[in-house]
User: Fold Dihydroorotase from Sphingomonas plantiphila.
Amino acid sequence: MATFDLKLTGGTVHLPSGPAQVDVGVRDGKIVAIGASGDAGETIDCTGLDVLPGVIDSQVHFREPGLEAKEDLESGSRAAVLGGVTAVFEMPNTKPNTDSADAVNDKLTRAKDRMWCDHAFYVGATNNNAEHLAELERMPGTAGVKIFMGASTGDLLVSDDANLARVLASGHRRVAIHAEDEFRMNDREGERVPGDPSSHPVWRDDESAILATRRILKLAREARRRIHVLHVTTPAELELLGQHKDIATCEVTPQHLTLAAEDAYPRLGSYAQMNPPIRSAAHRDGLWHWLNQGVPDVLGSDHAPHTIEEKAKPYPSSPSGMPGVQTLLPLLLDHVAKGRTTLQRLIDLTSAGPQRVFGLVGKGRIVPGYDADFTVVDLKKQWTVEEGWLASRCGWSPFTGDQLTGKPIGTIIRGRKVMWDGQLANSAHGRPVRFEAVEFG
Assistant:
């Protein structure tokens, strides 16, 4: 009888203590042995490859229900696992919004046996559901509460301090924040130049971002509530957030670490348009400085697909957002290859970091007792991002044609080989992610 269900052999395994040439044994979907010896029902030869803890993308928009022409839970999660991502947190700005228990349960039902990766869903804060958020954030399968201070429409916009304070007063888990100041952006709408997407970061300027970040830090401290500031785009915000680590964590995206306004808008036009905007090369370099100082806690893709027809509309009629879940890890592996950061830092941003920030149960590290989630990569593989590789329903990427070094080879989730060398398993078996605050709170 086999000792293990699955054994990974021959690879460089990235343990909490560092890289090691060890075999890993898996049984019943869990890691049971580091330095495994014994037979296995299935053995995966990882010679020449690096075995990372499963990559977690804690910010994606998969658009279902209501906006399935752009993406759905199946296609978005298929893109995720093809890019080496083992779990995602999905955002609430769908139609209808995910702002009630029924809406969360609807997404969980839709995800069952359709999503390829493990998953959790954010509840959107509104002016109307603030008093119910403490209950909603404790639902199994819920990643927590998301606040849009700006850049949203309708009920999901919570822009004034009084209602922000009501939201922060309801519940205990860390709250995710889109920090752009709605009032300043409204005042600056005249800065938009029709037909010129490069005016996007002029309109949604640095001050729009840092003003909102200052406001939410003050409110969070008054409420004694932990927050998580999403897709930070300015070095000044990272410097500020670094001074408030007792209540605030933060995220950066591969897009803001890779693209710069001087090249992106002339080359990509409205395909480079997102919120908060792609800013200058000096901003990008500043993000790298603070990333290597250790300030950002996680890397999220902010995968936000729109159709080619929508993105082709003249600015500012064109919608903001770009796909990114499939290219998150490849872009960062390329940055590692170019020496911009270390593989150790990348691992922390994509696995151990999300586990710490959000209190995940049994994910984020390669240790016995944890879920057998692995992202297997070839650090030396040179390749080109081609349209045919992309799985997102929107059918495009700002990184198509980019030549990269480092590629995801395998995605293993709870001991199941979901993707290997570009080939998917026969069926999807993603499950809801578990959280300490829900399981044990």
Notes: DSSP finds 15 helices and 19 strands in the chain. The CA atoms of residues 169 and 421 lie 47 Å apart. The mean pLDDT is 97. The longest helix spans residues 206-223.
